[in-house]
Amino acid sequence: MSKIMPAVDVVLVGGGWTGSVIGKELAATGQRVVVLERGQPRWTSPDFQAPGVRDELKYTRRNELHQNAATETYTFRNRVDETALPMRRWQFAYPANHLGGAGVHWSGAYYRWDPVEFRLRSHYTQRYGARIFEDGITAQDWPLTYDELEPFYDRFDRLVGASGFAGNLKGVIQPGGNPFEPWRSRPYPNPPMRVPHAPALFGEAAAKLGYHPYIQPSALSTRPYVNSEGLHMNECVYCGFCSNFGCEQFAKASPQVCILPVALKLPTFELRTNAHVLRVELDKDRKSARGVTYVDAAGVETFQPAQIVTLCAFAINNTRLLLLSGIGRPYDPATGDGVVGRNYTHQTSSGVSLFFDESVKINPFMAAGAVAVTMDDFCSDNFDHGPLGFVGGGYIQIQVVSGAPIGNRPTPPGTPGWGSAWKKAVKRYYNHSIPITITGSALPVRGGYLSLDPTYRDAWGQPLLRITYDFPDNDIKLSAFLTEKGTEIGHAMRGVTLAQGNPRTKPYGATGYQSSHINGGAAMGSDPATSVVNRYGQCWDVPNVFVTGAALFPQNSCYNPTGTIGALAYWTADAIKRDYLKAPGKLIAS
Amino acid sequence: MTDGIPHHRRIFLKQVATAVGAVPLALGASVVAGGAAAAETGTAAAAATAGASGQAPVPVVTAWLFFDGNEGRAAEAAVARLIPADDTGPGAKEAGVAVFIDRQLAGAWGSGDHLYRHAPFLAGTPQQGYQLAFTPAEMFRLGFAKLDEAARKAHAGAFADLTPEQQDALLGEAEHGKLDFGALPSAAFFGALLDATMEGFFSDPIYGGNRDKIGWKLVGFPGVHASYANDIERHGVAWTRPPASIADADNGG
Q1: From the candidates B139, B221, B233, B237, which should be mutated to test the interface with A, based on the most A CB atoms within 10 A?
Q2: Are the C-beta atoms of A322 and A522 separated by less than 8 Å?
């Protein structure tokens, strides 16, 4: 028998970026809002303050801000004829836990997606012919365009204090910026980040080869800034404890820094932490949600009635909640029928290891999660794919994320992993090595999908989410191409004595980190036969349930997801405020 | 400056020794005088190092929390081969890495607080990753026992009593899965031991390893400095300030 809470207008599952943005927007209109966050409340002060936060063992190796794999993980297999087994510890990605979610431990790399990403299938088909897509690729157009989303990107820019130099203002290319950048209505609110040594060397070599390097946009504030909510951010100090850490400085944008303090002042907004949602409860006709059931900090099962349910959990965890709640038809890879779980993707990442002569001091500890010189010459459809025979692209860059040496202790290929020879090499190369990072797009495949595991369960007895996936040949070709380009740039850099490209190869696996950008399973679309939600994130089958975040991506771009996730959160909040609250029901006929 | 330690660093070392009673940096000095003897009692390990600046050795007595005496001896001997003391400076044993591993195994990580441990435990593909039931604590307990067993079989002595060459050969066999550790693949144990050794050598000294920031000094990692805002555009600048730990910063250092 569940405990029952007083009814509210809106319940949001998860206190990360999308739950905070939509929760605040709706609470400000007078809607009674409850955000249920499964993790603990953690704040910039006191939780993320120096010196205690600068602890690589605690935050990176012991997963302090990551989802606890002991209580909830994913199972994984490459193919449907294998038995999926649990990821018993995190290696391939860092799903988040605690207030702010991945918006706390992220790196702050901050991109808009190219207009082509939103009409991927039709664009490539028009330019290159349908056969550019290999058999079994289930990529599809988004149900909205970049132009429609632009005002919402702009809005999120001003929430996170984005830093960068505009490359394209209302269609006019700006000298000094990224010439491939999608048009933007206004400049970045803050100037670009300072450029460390290695990215500067990368930019010099890339420019020499005729490419267009620029300073990566970031959500790390580069000067004192008052954001669109009236909250203060400070200047990033390049402390080097950024990715996997909370920011002590109020410089890296997070829900805690950028929005929650304002939301919590609204009398209609309530944040309930240590509230782990098990499922959305549906009416008998299964066409309407009644609210959600969660387990509170004491372990008591609790029902929260609500008029609107919004799923704002981490990425593909939203897909799991849909499956656990029986919302939408689960995808069947054998027939291609069903939609929930379809179009899972990750990120086709690779790198080039660079080793320098001793005159080049990298100082890898002078770092920030998103400080990089990057280039978009091979992103999206910025280059001719015709002779190459693959779809998609990737950015090539040098970023200086962290010098913390449990994780960062490069040695040249062929060096033993231990003993005096290793020790000599790590001493020689620690300050004279850094990789070129390549972040590639990912296409969905018919056999790659998310489903509930038949065997393994979480700490609350619910089935784990099962990932079935291997790379399409398309993405392997893409990675080989990009990694070769990156290696050429590495060879052209001053002081480099060895450049070794490491392209992504099959099989996809659970054992190597390849970004925390895990997407799909609740694709946004215009056709209910191939999508779970409509263009506003509203479930086709249960119209008072909305879904947010990377679960909506029909395929993955090379660009990091958070900018687009934030823009979509404002887009959904706007549709609910403008249309749904006035006439609850389907916003798009189906 | 006859010992080659810059003046500012010498002062820093003195401050550390005063502040936390820790052992000064032992650049090429003799190390760990009492560890093995104390460990043989099964209750404690002691380590003492002679200071590079000529101070009297200060004993650091650390009771094992998790290891028994044999495990502690094997751990100290193994980490001393994985990261040896040599002409590049002190190694993992001098840095207290065995102490670090012992404390980690005694704590939440050792008992698998972030490890999914539900059955069934099935052999998977390499892409599916670690699929054994062992917690780190269980794995290290069995692993060190089996390492000693393999040492006795090959050389009639515990692992810690073998020559460095014999120890290296056994570790190399474990690395490639060639030792029979029963239910525990020896390569899995070796991988976990190497990971834990690197963690102990390079993590903040507050966890008991990286003593005197031996690991950070080897590579030149400054630890927990507050800001590089004024330095990040000084490309290639030589960073010479001594490293700082969370504990130093907490103590106003």
Answers
A1: B221
A2: yes
Give dist(CA B245, CA B249) in Å, integer.
Answer: 6
Q: How far is CA A279 from CA A276, A322, A463, in A?
A: 9, 8, 12
Query: pTM of the entire structure?
Result: 0.92
Which member of B171, B199, B216 has the closest CB to residue A57? B199
C-beta atoms surrounding A529 within 10 Å: 12
Of A54, A85, A238, the CB nearest to B128: A85
pLDDT digits (tens, 9 = 90+) for A556-584: 999 999 999 999 999 999 999 999 999 99
Angle formed by the axes of helices A473-491 and A197-208, nearest 10°: 100
Contacts of A62 in chain B (CB under 8 A): 109, 114
Q: What's the pLDDT score for residue B60?
A: 56
pLDDT at position A399: 98
- The closest alpha carbon to A90, from A515, A555, A561, belongs to A515
Mean pLDDT of A201-223: 98
Token pair recorded at residue B222? 């400054």
Alpha carbons A253 and A533: distance in angstroms, whole number? 28
Instruction: Please count the CA atoms within 13 angstroms of the CA of A129 that sit on its side-chain side.
Output: 5
Cβ proximity of A533 and A527 under 8 Å: no
Whether A81 has its CB under 8 Å from any CB of chain B: the answer is no
- DSSP state letter for B130: -
CA B226 to CA B138: how far, in whole Å? 38
